[in-house]
Amino acid sequence: QVETLKEKLLEQAQEISRLRSEQGGTDAEKHRDLLAAENERLRQEMKALEGELRERQQQAPCRDCPHLQENAELQEQLSQLQREAEETRARLVELDLEVQQKTNRLAEVELRLKDSLAERAEEEERLSRRLRDSQETIASLKSQPQQIKYIIKTVEVESAKVKQALCETQSRNQYLQEQVGMQKQVLKEMEQQLQSSQKTEAQLRAQIMMYEAELERAHGQMLEEMQAMEDEKNHAIEEAFSRAQVEMKAVHENLAGVRTNLLTLQPALRTLTHDYNSLKRQVRDFPLLLQETLRSARAEISQAIEEVHSTNRELLRKYRRELQLRKKCHNELVRLKGNIRVFGRVRPITKEDGEGPEAANAVTFDADDDAVLHLLHKGKQVSFELDKVFPPQASQEEVFQEVQALVTSCIDGYNVCIFAYGQTGAGKTYTMEGTAANPGINQRALQLLFSEVRGKAADWDYTITVSAAEIYNEALRDLLGKEPQEKLEIKLCPDGSGQLYVPGLTEFRVQSVEDINKVFEFGHIKRVTECTNLNEHSSRSHALLIVTVRGLDRSTGLRTTGKLNLVDLAGSERVGRSGAEGSRLREAQHINKSLSALGDVIYALRSRQGHVPFRNSKLTYLLQDSLSGDSKTLMMVQVSPAEKNTSETLCSLKFAERVRSVELGPVSRKAELGSWPSQEHLEVLKILLGDSPGSSAPAGRGHASPSPGQLSSRSASIRRKLHTSG
């Protein structure tokens, strides 16, 4: 109730201030009051914001919370409100100064008004006196003219001196009349000023009386309200005192009951004290027990973790061993079935791929299996399993290490085909040809062949010939011939073997690495390459490097013929992206047509159709020997990891999986025995076939039979050579 009375007092004080402002407040004072109210409102809003800010700060902070931004906005609003409050305070101070100045000026004006009123009263008094004097003078002057007339009438016959005095008197009379007129005008003006001053004075007195009455009324109301508040306060105090007495009485009664309860609860308190002491001892000993328990638990957990780690390591070791065994068995199964082996190679991201999301890497690899890669296409991950996958950081040497076993089997009389497949710009030419400083499969294969030939030079005679051709716009051209524009044809061998050959294709016999470099340089110059939007040096034809290895075992007369076909296919491309026009467009159409024919052949082989359309394209017709089961075939699929090329990469990898499932059957070795010049070779052959050297085979004329020791040593040597070559 006291607070309510204080609020009423505050409201009455505000009402008095309002009445004062309505009675005599200037515009500046009103503006100041408005600013003070606005300042108070801003202060209350600032306090509310500060309270809300403190509540938010007391809450647990969280990272990435959506209220942090709201908190920052509230802090910014708080700082803005504080600046506005400061500006309002400054303006309020200025207005206080202005009000003070105007109050001082008003006091000065009031003093000057009082002085002017006093002076006006004195002036009115002086004018009244002058008016009375003027009236008296006028009255006296009114009475004088008769005498003057009379004198004039009586003194008309006076002398000239009297006439002069009369003129002077008349002029003086005229001057006095003028003075009287002027005094009348001044008197009229003074009367008007007096009337206006009286009106102003009356208005001021009326206002003062009204203000005094209003102040008296407000003072009376305030006294009444203060008296009422005093009465209410006394009444509230009396009521509070009476309630306090009642409550005190109840407290005394409760205290008596509590004392009684305390007397009854003392035994229970002693029991609780004893229990509390025992619990306190247990709590004091609890950290030691907890530490011991935690120590034993940590030891058990560490032991369990170590056992799990050891088990995991053992399982990982077994898994890797089984993975290697599975891969070995798979490779052996592939060899027995004659499947086409498929290796994948992912090129690095280059500056030609650009920047931004389109150049992001969309290909990932399996850390535990080097034959699996994953492609992220349109937000979905697609997995592919090949025979081997080379990541972008794989070197040319690492790639060749995986294919060199196939290359060396060419020396033993097997046909081998290695071809690179993929979209344009995927790195096929780099893998097959490489650079001068970092050569590819072609040059490394020939170097390996020379190395193997040198290692067998003691027992074998080898001849290595190289041919290079390209299929450009469905026309087969000789890259090593004198007329590269001459079109060649593919025909069956006349010996009835069913194999294909190209009549008129130039063959160079190579005997050293220098010969290889000359052949490669000569063939590379004549190959067709052009610039497109997808590749600065795009191959516009399918390039074939045909290496023929013919061997003769001088001891047994065994002849072997192996052929190594190294094919660099032109890349598939979308005409809309490559920007091919004119002749480039015609080249792209022929390239895509031949690659489509290759896909048809793979589909027919995979579905075991009776007819395989090898003759639909020069490319498939030339690769018929490599795809018809009489060759060891390896496809190196080249893919781009860039996000913008995921569609082409997906198509290439799907085609690679289809090729990997094709079974060509077991591979046959091209080997034949030459003429046997002596009985010694017949004996050796019998030994190899399991016959005894002392059997009844007829001896040749003019030749002595070899001794059993010589035959056994020669047979061992021949078996070793055949084992090495086979």
TrEMBL record:
Keywords: ATP-binding, Cell junction, Coiled coil, Cytoplasm, Cytoplasmic vesicle, Cytoskeleton, Membrane, Microtubule, Motor protein, Nucleotide-binding, Phosphoprotein. Its main location: other. It is found in: Cell junction, Adherens junction; Cytoplasm, Cytoskeleton, Microtubule organizing center, Centrosome; Cytoplasmic vesicle membrane. Residues 2-144, 187-239 form a coiled coil. The keyword Cell membrane does not apply. GO terms for biological process: microtubule-based movement. PROSITE patterns: KINESIN_MOTOR_1, KINESIN_MOTOR_2. Residues 339-662 form the Kinesin motor domain. CDD domains: KISc_C_terminal. One of its GO terms (molecular function) is microtubule binding. ATP binds at residues 422-429. Residues 707-716 have a biased composition (Polar residues). Residues 693-726 are annotated as: Disordered. Minus-end microtubule-dependent motor protein. Involved in apically targeted transport. Required for zonula adherens maintenance. Belongs to the TRAFAC class myosin-kinesin ATPase superfamily. Kinesin family. This is Kinesin-like protein. It comes from Emberiza fucata.
